[in-house]
Amino acid sequence: MKFINPKILMTSSALFLGVLGLTVSFFPQEILAHFNEEAEPFSLLFTKFSGLFLMSFAILNWMARGNIIGGIYSRPVALGNVMQFFFGASLLIELLMTEASGNLGLWGITIGYSLFGLAFLIIMFGNPIPKKGAT
Predict the structure, then answer these.
(1) Is residue 133 domain-resident?
(2) What is the pTM assigned to this prediction?
(3) Is residue 135 in a domain?
(4) In whole angstroms, how far apart are CA 45 and each of 15, 22, 59, 68?
């Protein structure tokens, strides 16, 4: 199995989630309008909370980027990211297959979520320390 550098994975996922979270938090009305949803108080609040959730994971990943991750090391961080990305990708794929297949931005987010989900799954069940000569 190819070694995945946890520091690069954690940093890139933190940046991905941070940009996504800031966008969702600061532009909830525009995002709701893009998906033809009403910008009512509850939907705005829920959208802002979703952005907060994304930024919280971004901070978690940024702060843990120097930790050993994989196997038994930092397992809660790895499992949280697997849940976030793997199941998030599943929900996004379902949305793309039913309603929003022409939305290129959503395709990009779905591809990002899918790749991060797979990478964190590999890290969680893999050996955190590469064998000699592995790159």
Answers:
(1) no
(2) 0.87
(3) no
(4) 23, 14, 21, 36
Task: Flag whether 77 is in a domain.
Answer: yes
The H or E element spanning position 12 is helix 6-26
Asked if 121 and 86 count as a contact pair (C-beta separation under 8 A), the reply is yes
Which of left, alpha, beta for 36 (phi over 0: left; psi -120 to 50: alpha)? left
Confidence check: pLDDT of 131 > 60: no
Q: Are 30 and 105 in contact (CB under 8 A)?
A: no
Reported as a single tens digit per residue, the pLDDT across 99-109 is: 867 788 899 99
User: Which range marks the domain in which residue 92 is found?
Assistant: 6-125
Could you read off the pLDDT of 32-54 as tens digits, one per residue?
Answer: 998 888 889 999 999 999 999 99
Rounded Cα–Cα distance for residues 41 and 85 (Å): 27
Nearest 5°: CA angle at 29, between 32 and 87? 45
Could you tell me if residue 134 is inside a domain?
Answer: no
